[in-house]
Amino acid sequence: MDVLTNKRVIWVGGKGGVGKTTVSSALALLAANRNKKVLLVSTDPAHSLSDAFAKQIGDNITRMAPNLDAIEIDPDHEVQQHLAQVTSQLKRFTRPEMYGEIERQMRLTRQSPGAQEAALLERIAHTIELGQQQYDLVIFDTAPTGHTLRLLSLPEAMAAWTQGLLKANERSEKLGAVLDHLTPKAGRDIDNPFDDPAEHATAGMDPRNKAIAETLLARQRLLQRTREILQDSKRTALLFVLTPEKLPILETSRAVDSLLAEKLPLAGLVINRILPETADGHFLAQRREQEHKHLLEIEQRFKQLPLFRLLLQPTDIEGLKGLEAMAQRLELSGL
Questions:
Q1: Which of 3, 28, 202, 265 has the least CB density, counted as fewest CB within 10 Å?
Q2: What is the rounded CA–CA span in Å between residue 283 and residue 277?
């Protein structure tokens, strides 16, 4: 039997407000109770993991329970750190008269679409590498669609941006040949954006240009390793959370189509907050009738995927005690 908590990386996603933070937190506790060493990661700037556990976490690895650590990555802070690092690297590799152009590019980049995703993806890639070395399982509490799809195209975007900046430097002509290998062009296999130039491609370069090329290639190889893990169904699983309502069903359907098209390993859907049979009253009876139709639609739309059902609880789920009870319900659902 393919047990979900035996994976190395799990992404828990879903529309806002469907309970994905609660599910990912309970899933992390379930894995920890199964003697897995788990790192639970959130990229939600609202710090929802801290709310779920009723304990401050922040951007440092924090022990939450036996076998379970957690960290909250702040996307805005990550952009600042990422761009500061890139600026520092570029200034080391270019002439002083280029510094003004570098800083101008960084100001534009900070406001550009995708800047946050690019910074987050690199941090996510490093976090996955850390997880492979120090943990049995890394669970991400985040909607995976945008991150994973951008992960596939990020190396080309980075190469094209860097190529444009470096061509302003008269002494970067030799580097252009290496960067051409990193940029999609006619006749190249676009489905394989990680084609790695031969090691000898940087031979004979000016040391400064060689350092730039090696920095770019190191980042490219990091993302390649990450993409290989994400696409490996033996190591990775994507789990979507939805509620039996119209809008979550439609959003989940679009996300599932996109992820399947990218051959990413969907492990199933958690249908959260299903009305229990014991909920009484005329109002709830009407809700249950509508919910029944949505449940049938979910079964039809996603018949190719495993479905895990969780009942609506009478009170909020919070703190370690509430999440432990939720972990038990996850186990009973078949996870």
A1: 3
A2: 13
- On the CB side of 318, how many CA atoms lie within 13 Å of its CA? 8
Give the burial string for 290-305 (b: 16+ CB within 10 Å, else e).
Answer: ebeebbeebeeebeeb
Q: Could you give the CA distance from residue 33 to residue 62 in angstroms, rounded to a whole number?
A: 17
pLDDT tens string 111-157: 776 677 777 888 888 999 999 999 999 999 976 555 555 555 554 55
183 with 159: CB under 8 angstroms?
Answer: yes
Phi-psi region of 54 (alpha: psi -120 to 50; beta: other; left: phi over 0): left
Cα–Cα dist 138/134, whole Å: 10
Q: What is the pTM of this model?
A: 0.83
Cα distance between residue 44 and residue 149, in whole Å: 18
- Check the CA dihedral 57-61-62-63 and report its sign: positive
Q: What distance in Å separates the CA atoms of residue 252 and residue 204, rounded to the nearest whole number?
A: 51
Q: What are phi and psi of 319, to 5 degrees?
A: 75, 165
